Amino acid sequence: MEYYTNRMSKLIESLQGLPGVGAKTAQRLAFHIIGMPEEKVTMMAESMIDARKNVCYCKSCQTLTDGELCPICSSEKRNKRTIMVVETVRDMVAYEKTDSYKGVYHVLHGAISPMVGIGPNDIRIKELITRLNGDVDEVIIATNSNVEGESTAIYISKLIKTLGVKVTRIASGVPVGGDLEYIDEITLMRALEGRKEL
Ligand code: ZN
């Protein structure tokens, strides 16, 4: 027996395609959407379409941006000679919130994880290497301190060292296995200040 109309089922099904949304949550969200004022739903749907169409990757640091270069890469105030390598845009945001880092970033969009079939070519390592053309003094590796983050750090540091660029790793003050975005700003600042050369 069909419990919902076709349109309702289609909505529930598409919501279920989102990460972390199971069948129950999808149903709850679908009912909520149906109860919302129509113009609010239109605004929400339009912002999704607009973001999907127009948000792209910064051609320098690979973060998400509306233009060619993100605001950080195009800022005169940022030191382009220091690059901090992070796994995700959310990690970058976490460091930005500390307000203490004045360099630029490089977003890998993941970490090396052979267990789930993610190799070095699946994340943005190539793009990082092409940035190291002589104008960079230090690369700070701020990947997570779990197995994937550590193996990514080792892989990248080996590559970069052959280019003669200084490579550092944030201090192990960051709890093992802890996602950077859930760590408070003071811990992140200490991790950054206590970084060690690899
Ligand atoms: Zn950028």
Explain this structure.
The protein has 198 residues and is of the alpha/beta class. It contains seven helices and seven strands. The strands form two sheets. It has a five-stranded mixed β-sheet with strand order 4-3-5-6-7. The protein has a two-stranded antiparallel sheet with strand order 1-2. α6 (147-161) links the parallel β5 and β6. α1 packs across α2 (23-35) and α4 crosses α7 (185-193). The longest helix is centred in the first third of the chain and has 17 residues, at 38-54. The N and C termini lie far apart (62 Å). The mean pLDDT is 90. Bound molecules: zinc ion.
Properties at a glance:
binds zinc ion; 198 residues; two-stranded antiparallel sheet; alpha/beta; 7 helices; 40% helix
Secondary structural class: alpha/beta
* Approximate strand percentage: 5-15%
Bound molecules: zinc ion
Overall, the morphology is elongated
What Rg is obtained from the alpha carbons, in whole angstroms? Answer: 20 Å
Order of helices and strands: HHHEEEHEHEHEHE
Q: For the residues shown, what is the average pLDDT?
A: 90
